[in-house]
Specification:
Elements (H helix, E strand, L loop, with lengths): L2 H28 L5 H33 L4 H23 L11 H16 L3 H11 L5 H11 L4 H24 L3 H6 L2 H33 L1
Length: about 220
């Protein structure tokens, strides 16, 4: 199955996690005067815009790493193993619905963008809704961590952009409907199997990353013989 299809499925299944973290924002926007649909579309579009931007950055970092250390195959093998292990850890935690602690040095970033979200959401304007989504996309999130790793492993900013945008599109239906049907959150919250599907997909990408590392290591050893 195409990786982007799996990313999209993970976005749909993992949106249960987004409902818990971001539902207050979506509900707030749904209560704004004027077209609630417009506010929600702009909010979610803002989130996807940020995910795409982060995907480009991740892909560029991966590409730079690839070019800088192209002749050091062992570093590529080590990176594939490291990325794979991290993805599997995140995937397992998602599967069993374990709480994933935020990385300490990212806390100031989270606080900064939380303040920006509060300011933009209070404006109750069309631009405010879009900016709220943009700022919301920068809030540290375990599922975003996982797919940014996946994006960086492509060594390509365009591929990184595609992965993160497709992930965002997968989360779009759940976040949009939440703002329109408030009770949806409570009904989906009890369906941990959705989050387990996302966790399994993240684990799959982790295993594939490790397999790539093994393959690269075998090829490197064969070339040296």
């Amino acid at each position: 199955m195409n990786d982007l299809v799996l990313v999209f499925i993970a976005g749909i299944a993992g949106s249960i996690h987004c409902l818990g973290m971001c539902s207050p924002i979506a509900v707030m926007l749904s209560n704004f005067k004027g077209s609630k649909t417009r506010h929600l579309i702009l909010y979610n579009s803002g989130r996807i815009f940020t995910y795409g931007f982060l995907g480009v950055i991740a892909g560029m970092l991966g590409e730079n790493f690839h070019h800088q250390f192209e002749s050091y195959n062992f570093l590529h093998v080590a990176a594939s193993f490291l990325f794979g292990i991290i993805l599997i850890i995140i995937g397992v935690k998602m599967f069993f619905n374990f709480q994933i602690r935020n990385i300490a040095f990212l806390s100031p970033i989270s606080e900064l963008f939380t303040q920006l979200i509060n300011q933009s959401a209070r404006s109750a304007s069309i631009m405010g809704s879009f900016l709220t989504g943009i700022f919301n996309g920068f809030i540290p999130c375990p599922m975003i961590y996982a797919f940014l790793i996946k994006a960086s492993s492509t060594f390509n900013p365009i591929s990184g952009f595609e992965i993160m945008v497709v992930l965002g599109l997968g989360t779009f239906p759940g976040m949009f409907l939440l703002g329109r049907v408030i009770l949806l959150k409570d009904r989906l919250a009890s369906n941990n199997w959705l989050l387990r599907i996302a966790g399994l997909i993240v684990c799959y990408f982790g295993v594939m990353s490790i397999m790539r590392g093994i393959s690269a290591g075998i090829v490197d050893n064969c070339c040296k013989m």
